[in-house]
Specification:
It is a single chain. It is globular and about 75 Å long. Strands 10-9-8-7-11-12-13 form a seven-stranded mixed sheet, sandwiched between helices. Strands 1, 2, 3, 4, 5 and 6 form a six-stranded mixed sheet that branches. The protein is built from 16 helices and 13 strands. It folds into two domains: 287 residues, Rossmann fold, CATH 3.40.50.720; 146 residues, Rossmann fold (3-Layer(aba) Sandwich). The chain is α/β, with parallel strands linked by helices. It binds nicotinamide-adenine-dinucleotide. Nicotinamide-adenine-dinucleotide binds next to helix 8 and strand 8.
Protein backbone atom coordinates (compact mmCIF):
# COMPACT_ATOMS: atom_id res chain seq x y z
CA UNK A 1 0.00 0.00 0.00
CA UNK A 2 1.03 3.61 -0.44
CA UNK A 3 3.50 4.70 2.23
CA UNK A 4 1.97 8.19 2.26
CA UNK A 5 -0.44 8.35 5.24
CA UNK A 6 -2.16 11.40 3.75
CA UNK A 7 -2.97 9.66 0.46
CA UNK A 8 -6.61 10.35 -0.45
CA UNK A 9 -8.12 7.82 -2.84
CA UNK A 10 -11.04 10.16 -3.57
CA UNK A 11 -8.70 13.06 -4.40
CA UNK A 12 -6.81 10.67 -6.72
CA UNK A 13 -10.05 9.92 -8.58
CA UNK A 14 -10.84 13.65 -8.76
CA UNK A 15 -7.37 14.34 -10.16
CA UNK A 16 -7.91 11.86 -12.99
CA UNK A 17 -11.39 13.32 -13.58
CA UNK A 18 -10.01 16.89 -13.84
CA UNK A 19 -7.30 15.75 -16.25
CA UNK A 20 -9.99 14.30 -18.54
CA UNK A 21 -12.60 17.04 -18.07
CA UNK A 22 -10.38 19.47 -20.01
CA UNK A 23 -11.05 17.42 -23.13
CA UNK A 24 -14.86 17.66 -22.79
CA UNK A 25 -17.24 20.49 -23.69
CA UNK A 26 -19.17 20.73 -20.40
CA UNK A 27 -19.27 23.88 -18.25
CA UNK A 28 -17.74 23.90 -14.77
CA UNK A 29 -21.12 23.60 -13.00
CA UNK A 30 -22.07 20.37 -14.76
CA UNK A 31 -18.57 18.96 -14.22
CA UNK A 32 -18.78 19.78 -10.50
CA UNK A 33 -22.17 18.10 -10.26
CA UNK A 34 -20.81 14.96 -11.95
CA UNK A 35 -17.80 14.88 -9.60
CA UNK A 36 -19.50 15.32 -6.21
CA UNK A 37 -20.91 12.52 -4.05
CA UNK A 38 -24.67 13.12 -3.93
CA UNK A 39 -25.45 11.38 -0.59
CA UNK A 40 -23.21 9.96 2.09
CA UNK A 41 -24.42 7.82 4.96
CA UNK A 42 -22.24 7.03 7.95
CA UNK A 43 -23.80 4.81 10.61
CA UNK A 44 -22.58 3.36 13.88
CA UNK A 45 -24.61 0.48 15.24
CA UNK A 46 -24.31 -1.96 18.12
CA UNK A 47 -24.26 -5.76 17.78
CA UNK A 48 -24.04 -8.25 20.63
CA UNK A 49 -20.88 -10.35 20.12
CA UNK A 50 -20.14 -13.09 22.67
CA UNK A 51 -22.38 -11.39 25.24
CA UNK A 52 -20.69 -7.97 24.82
CA UNK A 53 -21.87 -4.96 22.83
CA UNK A 54 -19.58 -4.01 19.95
CA UNK A 55 -20.12 -0.82 17.96
CA UNK A 56 -19.50 -1.02 14.20
CA UNK A 57 -18.75 1.83 11.80
CA UNK A 58 -20.29 1.51 8.34
CA UNK A 59 -20.96 3.54 5.21
CA UNK A 60 -23.06 3.74 2.09
CA UNK A 61 -22.27 6.42 -0.48
CA UNK A 62 -24.48 7.27 -3.45
CA UNK A 63 -22.15 9.10 -5.76
CA UNK A 64 -24.53 9.94 -8.57
CA UNK A 65 -28.31 10.11 -8.91
CA UNK A 66 -28.29 10.95 -12.62
CA UNK A 67 -29.62 7.43 -13.08
CA UNK A 68 -31.29 5.24 -10.48
CA UNK A 69 -30.81 2.87 -8.79
CA UNK A 70 -27.29 3.50 -7.52
CA UNK A 71 -25.14 0.42 -7.81
CA UNK A 72 -21.97 -0.81 -6.17
CA UNK A 73 -20.50 -3.39 -3.84
CA UNK A 74 -20.25 -3.66 -0.07
CA UNK A 75 -16.74 -4.07 1.31
CA UNK A 76 -15.81 -5.69 4.63
CA UNK A 77 -12.31 -4.58 5.56
CA UNK A 78 -10.37 -3.04 8.45
CA UNK A 79 -9.29 -0.17 6.19
CA UNK A 80 -12.81 0.98 5.20
CA UNK A 81 -13.23 4.75 5.69
CA UNK A 82 -15.35 7.50 4.19
CA UNK A 83 -12.70 8.66 1.71
CA UNK A 84 -12.28 5.11 0.36
CA UNK A 85 -16.04 4.48 0.02
CA UNK A 86 -16.53 7.85 -1.72
CA UNK A 87 -13.75 7.06 -4.20
CA UNK A 88 -15.13 3.59 -4.91
CA UNK A 89 -18.66 5.00 -5.36
CA UNK A 90 -17.35 7.60 -7.82
CA UNK A 91 -15.54 4.91 -9.81
CA UNK A 92 -18.84 2.99 -9.97
CA UNK A 93 -20.59 5.97 -11.60
CA UNK A 94 -17.92 6.19 -14.31
CA UNK A 95 -17.76 2.41 -14.69
CA UNK A 96 -21.52 2.09 -15.28
CA UNK A 97 -21.41 4.88 -17.88
CA UNK A 98 -18.48 3.26 -19.72
CA UNK A 99 -20.19 -0.13 -20.09
CA UNK A 100 -23.62 1.43 -20.73
CA UNK A 101 -25.25 0.07 -17.59
CA UNK A 102 -28.08 2.50 -16.63
CA UNK A 103 -27.17 3.03 -12.97
CA UNK A 104 -25.64 5.74 -10.81
CA UNK A 105 -22.60 4.79 -8.76
CA UNK A 106 -22.73 3.67 -5.13
CA UNK A 107 -20.56 1.82 -2.66
CA UNK A 108 -20.79 0.57 0.91
CA UNK A 109 -18.52 -0.81 3.54
CA UNK A 110 -18.20 -1.98 7.12
CA UNK A 111 -14.95 -1.31 8.97
CA UNK A 112 -14.34 -4.85 10.16
CA UNK A 113 -11.86 -7.70 9.94
CA UNK A 114 -14.24 -10.50 8.91
CA UNK A 115 -11.67 -13.20 9.71
CA UNK A 116 -12.03 -12.69 13.48
CA UNK A 117 -15.83 -13.17 13.62
CA UNK A 118 -17.91 -16.37 13.49
CA UNK A 119 -20.35 -16.86 10.60
CA UNK A 120 -23.26 -16.28 13.00
CA UNK A 121 -21.70 -12.95 14.13
CA UNK A 122 -21.12 -11.88 10.51
CA UNK A 123 -24.76 -12.68 9.74
CA UNK A 124 -25.99 -10.49 12.61
CA UNK A 125 -23.66 -7.64 11.61
CA UNK A 126 -24.72 -7.83 7.93
CA UNK A 127 -28.42 -7.97 8.80
CA UNK A 128 -28.07 -5.00 11.18
CA UNK A 129 -26.23 -3.03 8.47
CA UNK A 130 -29.07 -3.81 6.03
CA UNK A 131 -31.60 -2.67 8.63
CA UNK A 132 -29.75 0.67 8.88
CA UNK A 133 -29.78 1.01 5.06
CA UNK A 134 -33.55 0.33 5.02
CA UNK A 135 -34.20 2.89 7.77
CA UNK A 136 -32.36 5.57 5.82
CA UNK A 137 -33.73 4.66 2.34
CA UNK A 138 -30.28 3.60 1.15
CA UNK A 139 -31.37 0.26 -0.31
CA UNK A 140 -34.14 -0.86 -2.68
CA UNK A 141 -34.50 -2.19 -6.24
CA UNK A 142 -35.20 1.31 -7.58
CA UNK A 143 -32.99 3.23 -5.13
CA UNK A 144 -29.68 1.61 -4.35
CA UNK A 145 -28.57 -1.96 -5.05
CA UNK A 146 -25.45 -3.37 -3.29
CA UNK A 147 -23.33 -6.31 -4.51
CA UNK A 148 -20.28 -8.30 -3.34
CA UNK A 149 -16.87 -6.66 -3.08
CA UNK A 150 -13.64 -7.20 -1.15
CA UNK A 151 -14.41 -9.42 1.88
CA UNK A 152 -18.01 -10.24 0.90
CA UNK A 153 -19.65 -12.86 -1.33
CA UNK A 154 -23.02 -14.36 -2.25
CA UNK A 155 -23.42 -15.43 1.39
CA UNK A 156 -23.65 -11.84 2.65
CA UNK A 157 -25.90 -10.93 -0.30
CA UNK A 158 -28.40 -13.64 0.71
CA UNK A 159 -28.55 -12.16 4.26
CA UNK A 160 -29.11 -8.71 2.76
CA UNK A 161 -31.95 -9.81 0.45
CA UNK A 162 -33.63 -11.77 3.24
CA UNK A 163 -33.49 -8.82 5.65
CA UNK A 164 -34.74 -6.36 3.02
CA UNK A 165 -37.58 -8.71 1.98
CA UNK A 166 -38.67 -9.23 5.59
CA UNK A 167 -38.86 -5.46 6.12
CA UNK A 168 -40.62 -4.86 2.76
CA UNK A 169 -42.99 -7.82 2.41
CA UNK A 170 -45.19 -6.20 -0.24
CA UNK A 171 -42.32 -5.20 -2.56
CA UNK A 172 -42.86 -7.42 -5.60
CA UNK A 173 -39.34 -6.61 -6.83
CA UNK A 174 -37.60 -7.16 -3.49
CA UNK A 175 -35.16 -9.68 -5.02
CA UNK A 176 -33.72 -6.80 -7.07
CA UNK A 177 -32.53 -4.98 -3.89
CA UNK A 178 -29.08 -6.60 -4.13
CA UNK A 179 -27.11 -8.57 -6.74
CA UNK A 180 -24.51 -11.31 -6.51
CA UNK A 181 -27.04 -13.50 -4.71
CA UNK A 182 -26.98 -17.31 -4.70
CA UNK A 183 -29.08 -18.78 -7.54
CA UNK A 184 -31.67 -20.08 -5.05
CA UNK A 185 -32.19 -16.51 -3.79
CA UNK A 186 -32.71 -14.94 -7.24
CA UNK A 187 -29.09 -14.79 -8.41
CA UNK A 188 -28.02 -15.26 -12.00
CA UNK A 189 -25.67 -17.93 -13.35
CA UNK A 190 -22.27 -16.44 -14.17
CA UNK A 191 -22.16 -13.63 -11.54
CA UNK A 192 -19.49 -15.29 -9.36
CA UNK A 193 -16.87 -15.40 -12.13
CA UNK A 194 -18.10 -12.25 -13.94
CA UNK A 195 -15.49 -9.72 -12.81
CA UNK A 196 -12.51 -12.02 -13.37
CA UNK A 197 -13.91 -13.18 -16.69
CA UNK A 198 -14.43 -9.54 -17.72
CA UNK A 199 -10.80 -8.82 -16.79
CA UNK A 200 -9.77 -11.66 -19.09
CA UNK A 201 -11.97 -10.40 -21.98
CA UNK A 202 -10.57 -6.87 -21.58
CA UNK A 203 -6.93 -7.97 -21.56
CA UNK A 204 -7.55 -10.34 -24.47
CA UNK A 205 -9.03 -7.46 -26.46
CA UNK A 206 -6.06 -5.20 -25.67
CA UNK A 207 -3.62 -7.94 -26.72
CA UNK A 208 -5.46 -8.53 -30.00
CA UNK A 209 -4.55 -5.10 -31.45
CA UNK A 210 -1.40 -5.46 -33.53
CA UNK A 211 -0.24 -1.85 -33.55
CA UNK A 212 -0.67 -1.43 -29.77
CA UNK A 213 1.25 -4.63 -29.06
CA UNK A 214 3.99 -3.65 -31.54
CA UNK A 215 4.50 -0.37 -29.60
CA UNK A 216 5.11 -2.45 -26.46
CA UNK A 217 7.41 -4.87 -28.29
CA UNK A 218 4.91 -7.71 -27.81
CA UNK A 219 3.28 -10.12 -30.24
CA UNK A 220 -0.51 -10.20 -30.54
CA UNK A 221 -2.67 -12.62 -28.56
CA UNK A 222 -2.84 -13.58 -24.92
CA UNK A 223 -1.32 -17.02 -25.61
CA UNK A 224 2.22 -17.27 -24.23
CA UNK A 225 2.09 -13.96 -22.33
CA UNK A 226 3.75 -14.08 -18.89
CA UNK A 227 1.32 -12.87 -16.21
CA UNK A 228 1.66 -11.96 -12.50
CA UNK A 229 -1.51 -11.70 -10.41
CA UNK A 230 -1.83 -10.05 -7.00
CA UNK A 231 -4.75 -11.24 -4.84
CA UNK A 232 -6.25 -14.68 -5.27
CA UNK A 233 -9.78 -13.84 -4.17
CA UNK A 234 -12.85 -13.85 -6.35
CA UNK A 235 -11.53 -11.49 -9.02
CA UNK A 236 -7.86 -12.55 -9.09
CA UNK A 237 -8.58 -16.28 -9.09
CA UNK A 238 -11.06 -16.13 -11.97
CA UNK A 239 -8.90 -13.73 -14.00
CA UNK A 240 -5.98 -16.16 -13.56
CA UNK A 241 -8.13 -19.15 -14.46
CA UNK A 242 -9.43 -17.70 -17.74
CA UNK A 243 -6.04 -16.29 -18.77
CA UNK A 244 -4.44 -19.70 -18.10
CA UNK A 245 -7.17 -21.47 -20.08
CA UNK A 246 -6.42 -19.15 -23.03
CA UNK A 247 -2.76 -20.17 -22.99
CA UNK A 248 -1.16 -17.40 -20.89
CA UNK A 249 1.64 -18.43 -18.52
CA UNK A 250 0.98 -17.51 -14.88
CA UNK A 251 4.55 -16.80 -13.74
CA UNK A 252 3.81 -15.07 -10.43
CA UNK A 253 1.14 -15.07 -7.73
CA UNK A 254 0.93 -12.74 -4.74
CA UNK A 255 -1.09 -12.89 -1.52
CA UNK A 256 -0.98 -10.64 1.56
CA UNK A 257 1.40 -13.04 3.33
CA UNK A 258 3.86 -13.97 0.59
CA UNK A 259 4.50 -14.24 -3.15
CA UNK A 260 5.85 -16.92 -5.51
CA UNK A 261 7.47 -16.80 -8.96
CA UNK A 262 8.19 -19.52 -11.53
CA UNK A 263 9.25 -18.58 -15.05
CA UNK A 264 7.96 -21.79 -16.63
CA UNK A 265 4.49 -21.27 -15.16
CA UNK A 266 2.26 -22.08 -12.17
CA UNK A 267 -1.03 -23.97 -12.28
CA UNK A 268 -3.59 -21.73 -10.58
CA UNK A 269 -5.68 -24.59 -9.13
CA UNK A 270 -2.63 -26.45 -7.79
CA UNK A 271 -1.44 -23.24 -6.11
CA UNK A 272 -4.89 -22.51 -4.65
CA UNK A 273 -5.11 -26.04 -3.22
CA UNK A 274 -1.59 -25.66 -1.75
CA UNK A 275 -2.52 -22.30 -0.20
CA UNK A 276 -5.67 -23.78 1.36
CA UNK A 277 -3.62 -26.60 2.91
CA UNK A 278 -0.70 -24.43 4.12
CA UNK A 279 -2.28 -21.02 4.74
CA UNK A 280 0.24 -19.32 2.43
CA UNK A 281 1.82 -19.50 -1.03
CA UNK A 282 5.33 -19.61 0.40
CA UNK A 283 7.55 -22.60 -0.46
CA UNK A 284 5.28 -23.82 -3.26
CA UNK A 285 7.38 -26.61 -4.84
CA UNK A 286 9.56 -25.47 -7.76
CA UNK A 287 8.86 -21.75 -7.29
CA UNK A 288 10.95 -18.92 -5.78
CA UNK A 289 9.28 -17.52 -2.64
CA UNK A 290 9.23 -13.91 -1.40
CA UNK A 291 8.27 -13.30 2.22
CA UNK A 292 7.98 -9.60 1.40
CA UNK A 293 4.99 -10.02 -0.90
CA UNK A 294 5.50 -6.60 -2.51
CA UNK A 295 8.63 -8.01 -4.22
CA UNK A 296 6.26 -10.22 -6.23
CA UNK A 297 5.01 -7.14 -8.12
CA UNK A 298 8.53 -6.31 -9.32
CA UNK A 299 9.33 -9.62 -11.05
CA UNK A 300 9.66 -9.94 -14.86
CA UNK A 301 6.40 -10.40 -16.76
CA UNK A 302 4.41 -9.06 -19.73
CA UNK A 303 1.19 -8.37 -17.83
CA UNK A 304 0.67 -7.47 -14.16
CA UNK A 305 -2.86 -7.84 -12.77
CA UNK A 306 -3.32 -6.25 -9.33
CA UNK A 307 -6.57 -7.77 -7.96
CA UNK A 308 -6.45 -6.97 -4.23
CA UNK A 309 -6.71 -3.44 -2.83
CA UNK A 310 -5.97 0.17 -3.77
CA UNK A 311 -2.64 2.05 -3.82
CA UNK A 312 -0.44 -1.08 -4.01
CA UNK A 313 1.67 0.53 -6.76
CA UNK A 314 2.91 3.97 -5.70
CA UNK A 315 5.77 6.39 -6.31
CA UNK A 316 8.20 4.26 -4.30
CA UNK A 317 7.77 1.02 -6.26
CA UNK A 318 6.41 2.11 -9.68
CA UNK A 319 9.94 2.39 -11.14
CA UNK A 320 10.62 -1.24 -10.26
CA UNK A 321 7.60 -2.62 -12.14
CA UNK A 322 8.74 -4.62 -15.18
CA UNK A 323 5.34 -5.34 -16.77
CA UNK A 324 4.51 -3.80 -20.15
CA UNK A 325 0.77 -4.00 -19.51
CA UNK A 326 -1.01 -3.40 -16.20
CA UNK A 327 -4.57 -4.70 -16.03
CA UNK A 328 -6.27 -2.96 -13.10
CA UNK A 329 -8.60 -5.68 -11.81
CA UNK A 330 -8.74 -4.06 -8.36
CA UNK A 331 -10.16 -0.59 -7.88
CA UNK A 332 -7.48 2.10 -7.68
CA UNK A 333 -4.37 -0.13 -7.44
CA UNK A 334 -2.17 2.70 -8.83
CA UNK A 335 -1.77 6.03 -7.05
CA UNK A 336 -1.78 9.05 -9.41
CA UNK A 337 2.01 9.35 -8.94
CA UNK A 338 2.50 5.74 -9.98
CA UNK A 339 0.19 6.30 -12.92
CA UNK A 340 2.36 9.21 -14.13
CA UNK A 341 5.58 7.21 -13.74
CA UNK A 342 4.22 4.17 -15.59
CA UNK A 343 2.68 6.22 -18.39
CA UNK A 344 6.04 7.94 -18.92
CA UNK A 345 7.68 4.51 -19.09
CA UNK A 346 5.27 3.62 -21.92
CA UNK A 347 3.37 0.97 -19.94
CA UNK A 348 -0.17 0.29 -21.19
CA UNK A 349 -2.43 0.73 -18.14
CA UNK A 350 -5.91 -0.72 -18.72
CA UNK A 351 -7.97 1.27 -16.20
CA UNK A 352 -10.03 -0.24 -13.37
CA UNK A 353 -13.28 1.49 -14.22
CA UNK A 354 -13.32 -0.33 -17.53
CA UNK A 355 -11.46 -3.55 -16.77
CA UNK A 356 -13.33 -4.69 -13.66
CA UNK A 357 -16.76 -3.66 -14.99
CA UNK A 358 -17.72 -7.29 -15.69
CA UNK A 359 -19.18 -7.57 -12.18
CA UNK A 360 -21.56 -4.66 -12.53
CA UNK A 361 -22.45 -5.71 -16.08
CA UNK A 362 -23.63 -9.13 -14.92
CA UNK A 363 -25.20 -7.55 -11.82
CA UNK A 364 -27.28 -5.51 -14.27
CA UNK A 365 -28.35 -8.74 -15.99
CA UNK A 366 -29.25 -10.19 -12.56
CA UNK A 367 -31.30 -7.11 -11.65
CA UNK A 368 -33.16 -7.33 -14.99
CA UNK A 369 -33.88 -11.00 -14.28
CA UNK A 370 -35.27 -10.08 -10.83
CA UNK A 371 -37.52 -7.36 -12.27
CA UNK A 372 -38.76 -9.58 -15.10
CA UNK A 373 -39.26 -12.57 -12.78
CA UNK A 374 -38.12 -14.99 -15.46
CA UNK A 375 -34.90 -16.94 -16.03
CA UNK A 376 -32.84 -16.02 -19.11
CA UNK A 377 -33.37 -18.51 -21.92
CA UNK A 378 -36.63 -19.87 -20.52
CA UNK A 379 -38.78 -18.46 -23.31
CA UNK A 380 -36.51 -18.88 -26.32
CA UNK A 381 -34.45 -22.03 -25.73
CA UNK A 382 -36.92 -24.65 -27.03
CA UNK A 383 -38.19 -22.35 -29.78
CA UNK A 384 -34.62 -21.80 -31.03
CA UNK A 385 -33.86 -25.54 -30.95
CA UNK A 386 -37.04 -26.34 -32.93
CA UNK A 387 -36.23 -23.69 -35.54
CA UNK A 388 -32.64 -24.94 -35.95
CA UNK A 389 -33.96 -28.49 -36.23
CA UNK A 390 -36.30 -27.44 -39.06
CA UNK A 391 -33.44 -25.64 -40.86
CA UNK A 392 -31.04 -28.61 -40.55
CA UNK A 393 -33.76 -31.04 -41.73
CA UNK A 394 -34.52 -28.80 -44.75
CA UNK A 395 -30.81 -28.60 -45.64
CA UNK A 396 -30.50 -32.39 -45.29
CA UNK A 397 -33.50 -32.88 -47.60
CA UNK A 398 -32.10 -30.42 -50.17
CA UNK A 399 -28.59 -31.87 -50.20
CA UNK A 400 -29.48 -35.51 -49.65
CA UNK A 401 -26.84 -35.61 -46.91
CA UNK A 402 -27.21 -36.03 -43.14
CA UNK A 403 -25.16 -34.28 -40.44
CA UNK A 404 -23.77 -36.57 -37.70
CA UNK A 405 -25.61 -36.98 -34.38
CA UNK A 406 -23.01 -35.00 -32.37
CA UNK A 407 -22.87 -32.17 -34.92
CA UNK A 408 -26.66 -32.05 -35.00
CA UNK A 409 -26.83 -31.76 -31.21
CA UNK A 410 -24.25 -28.92 -31.24
CA UNK A 411 -26.01 -27.00 -34.01
CA UNK A 412 -29.43 -27.37 -32.40
CA UNK A 413 -28.44 -26.28 -28.89
CA UNK A 414 -30.54 -23.32 -27.76
CA UNK A 415 -29.12 -20.79 -25.28
CA UNK A 416 -29.06 -21.53 -21.55
CA UNK A 417 -28.91 -18.67 -19.02
CA UNK A 418 -25.14 -19.08 -18.58
CA UNK A 419 -24.52 -18.87 -22.36
CA UNK A 420 -26.46 -15.62 -22.63
CA UNK A 421 -24.75 -14.08 -19.60
CA UNK A 422 -21.26 -14.98 -20.81
CA UNK A 423 -21.91 -13.74 -24.34
CA UNK A 424 -23.51 -10.50 -23.07
CA UNK A 425 -20.45 -9.92 -20.90
CA UNK A 426 -18.00 -10.69 -23.71
CA UNK A 427 -19.80 -8.35 -26.08
CA UNK A 428 -19.85 -5.53 -23.48
CA UNK A 429 -16.15 -5.85 -22.64
CA UNK A 430 -15.10 -5.98 -26.30
CA UNK A 431 -17.30 -3.07 -27.39
CA UNK A 432 -16.36 -0.82 -24.45
CA UNK A 433 -12.63 -1.38 -25.00
CA UNK A 434 -12.93 0.02 -28.51
CA UNK A 435 -15.11 2.95 -27.37
CA UNK A 436 -12.31 4.00 -24.98
CA UNK A 437 -9.48 3.23 -27.38
CA UNK A 438 -11.13 5.28 -30.16
CA UNK A 439 -11.12 8.30 -27.82
CA UNK A 440 -7.48 7.57 -26.89
CA UNK A 441 -6.40 7.36 -30.52
CA UNK A 442 -8.51 10.21 -31.88
CA UNK A 443 -8.28 12.94 -29.20
CA UNK A 444 -5.21 15.14 -29.53
CA UNK A 445 -3.38 15.46 -26.22
CA UNK A 446 -4.82 12.33 -24.57
CA UNK A 447 -1.87 10.21 -23.54
CA UNK A 448 -3.35 7.31 -21.62
CA UNK A 449 -6.32 4.96 -21.54
CA UNK A 450 -7.47 6.14 -18.07
CA UNK A 451 -7.98 9.70 -19.33
CA UNK A 452 -9.80 8.32 -22.37
CA UNK A 453 -12.04 6.20 -20.11
CA UNK A 454 -12.89 9.25 -17.98
CA UNK A 455 -13.70 11.28 -21.11
CA UNK A 456 -15.97 8.47 -22.29
CA UNK A 457 -17.81 8.47 -18.93
CA UNK A 458 -18.01 12.28 -18.54
CA UNK A 459 -19.46 12.67 -22.04
CA UNK A 460 -22.29 10.23 -21.32
CA UNK A 461 -23.10 11.56 -17.82
CA UNK A 462 -22.79 15.20 -18.95
CA UNK A 463 -25.36 14.64 -21.69
CA UNK A 464 -27.67 12.91 -19.20
CA UNK A 465 -27.49 15.93 -16.86
CA UNK A 466 -28.05 18.37 -19.73
CA UNK A 467 -31.10 16.49 -20.95
CA UNK A 468 -32.40 15.96 -17.42
CA UNK A 469 -32.13 19.69 -16.69
CA UNK A 470 -31.08 21.05 -13.32
CA UNK A 471 -33.94 21.68 -10.86
CA UNK A 472 -34.43 25.50 -10.79
P1 LIG B 1 -11.75 -10.91 -2.27
O1 LIG B 1 -11.98 -10.56 -0.85
O2 LIG B 1 -12.51 -12.06 -2.84
O3 LIG B 1 -10.19 -11.17 -2.55
C1 LIG B 1 -9.16 -10.29 -2.28
C2 LIG B 1 -7.88 -11.10 -2.15
O4 LIG B 1 -6.78 -10.19 -2.03
C3 LIG B 1 -7.84 -12.00 -0.90
O5 LIG B 1 -7.44 -13.30 -1.28
C4 LIG B 1 -6.84 -11.30 0.01
O6 LIG B 1 -6.16 -12.20 0.89
C5 LIG B 1 -5.88 -10.69 -1.01
N1 LIG B 1 -5.07 -9.60 -0.49
C6 LIG B 1 -5.36 -8.67 0.45
N2 LIG B 1 -4.34 -7.82 0.65
C7 LIG B 1 -3.35 -8.22 -0.19
C8 LIG B 1 -2.02 -7.77 -0.46
N3 LIG B 1 -1.51 -6.71 0.19
N4 LIG B 1 -1.29 -8.43 -1.38
C9 LIG B 1 -1.80 -9.49 -2.04
N5 LIG B 1 -3.04 -9.97 -1.83
C10 LIG B 1 -3.82 -9.35 -0.91
O7 LIG B 1 -12.03 -9.55 -3.07
P2 LIG B 1 -12.47 -9.40 -4.60
O8 LIG B 1 -13.94 -9.38 -4.67
O9 LIG B 1 -11.68 -10.35 -5.43
O10 LIG B 1 -12.00 -7.89 -4.88
C11 LIG B 1 -10.67 -7.56 -5.22
C12 LIG B 1 -10.62 -6.19 -5.86
O11 LIG B 1 -11.47 -6.17 -7.01
C13 LIG B 1 -11.11 -5.03 -4.97
O12 LIG B 1 -10.38 -3.87 -5.29
C14 LIG B 1 -12.54 -4.86 -5.42
O13 LIG B 1 -13.04 -3.55 -5.15
C15 LIG B 1 -12.40 -5.12 -6.90
N6 LIG B 1 -13.67 -5.50 -7.56
C16 LIG B 1 -14.36 -6.59 -7.16
C17 LIG B 1 -15.53 -6.93 -7.83
C18 LIG B 1 -16.31 -8.17 -7.50
O14 LIG B 1 -17.24 -8.50 -8.25
N7 LIG B 1 -15.99 -8.91 -6.47
C19 LIG B 1 -15.99 -6.13 -8.89
C20 LIG B 1 -15.24 -5.02 -9.28
C21 LIG B 1 -14.08 -4.72 -8.60
Amino acid sequence: MSTNPRYSFFKGVERSFDKAAKFTRFPKGILNQIKECNSTLQVKFPVLINGKVEVFEAYRVQHSHHKLPCKGGVRFSKSVNQDEVMALAALMTYKCAIVNVPFGGGKGGIKIDPSIYSVADLERITRRYTFELCKKNFIGPGLDVPAPDYGTSSREMSWIVDTYSSLNPSDLNALGCVTGKPISQGGVRGRVEATGMGVFFGIREACSIKEDMAKLGLSTGIKGKAIIIQGLGNVGYHAAKYCQQAGAIIVGLIEYNGAIYKESGLDIDEVQAYRKRNGSLLNFPGATSFEDETKGLEQPCDILIPAALEAVIHKDNAHAIQAKIIGEAANGPLTPDADDILNKKGVLVIPDMYLNAGGVTVSYFEWLKNLSHVRYGRLEKRFTENRYSDIVSSLEALTNKNVGAIERRNILKGPEEIDLIHSGLEDTMMGSYHEIRDIYINTAGVEDMRTAAFICAINKIGVAYEELGIFP
